[in-house]
Design a protein that fits this description.
mainly alpha
């Protein structure tokens, strides 16, 4: 679970900076989740740079000893640990019941943030997709597993986009009531898929490290 005190501290800090592109904690948490769910390693300074968005004083605050920096590091550790342990982040952080018919505003913001994190990682994931497909061709027993993951990944991105703009999506649906009724199932599917993506990212990261050690 996310550290409650750190979440409050960092949320308050974000709200004090209207010049940031994103000032709500849920969008930032989603962005961090999307950024870390990738085989590419991102250092603290890179992550802070994305959050501060060229705001030098804010960057300095988050890179030097301060309660805001401590809060951010704790949240980064919380998210990393959740991904390593293959925990279901949405179910833990944004719980929804089987009677819900739409994502909460907080979850919608989180989904927008995750998509922004994916955009940073997009080129890396495309390279990893090529690796997965080529690995399938070399291993008959795993044939089509890589392509299945890619298909599920793309479906997950579509689901994230649906959740992030739920109201607009409803207006474009021929049967909006049916979509609302299916929300609990879609929510559980998204939670499962995001957990699987984070796990695959860690596996790919380990594979890259192994190849680097063999070559170096």
């Amino acid at each position: 679970m996310l550290n409650e005190k750190s979440t409050i501290i960092f949320s308050d800090y974000l709200s004090q900076h209207a010049e940031f592109k994103v000032t709500d904690i849920d969008s930032v948490l989603g962005f961090i989740c999307g950024l870390l769910a990738c085989s590419e390693f991102y250092g603290e300074s890179e992550i802070v740079g994305y959050i501060a968005d060229k705001n030098d004083p804010a960057y300095a605050t988050m890179m030097t000893e301060s309660q805001e920096r401590d809060a951010m590091i704790t949240l980064l550790d919380n998210i990393t640990q959740a991904q390593v342990e293959q925990r279901h982040f949405l179910a833990e952080t944004y719980p929804h019941s089987d009677s819900d018919t739409m994502p909460s505003p907080r979850l919608q913001h989180w989904c927008k943030g995750y998509l922004a994190g994916y955009e940073v990682n997009q080129a890396v994931w495309e390279q990893d997709f090529s690796f997965l497909v080529s690995a399938d061709k070399q291993q008959v027993t795993n044939q089509a597993d890589g392509q299945l993951f890619i298909d599920n990944f793309e479906a997950t991105l579509n689901l994230l986009a649906t959740f992030s703009a739920w109201e607009n999506t409803l207006t474009q649906q021929p049967e909006p009531d049916k979509l609302s009724a299916n929300f609990p199932l879609l929510y559980k599917s998204l939670d499962e898929s995001l957990t699987a993506i984070a796990s695959m990212a860690l596996m790919l990261e380990d594979e890259k490290l192994s190849q680097f050690e063999e070559e170096g």
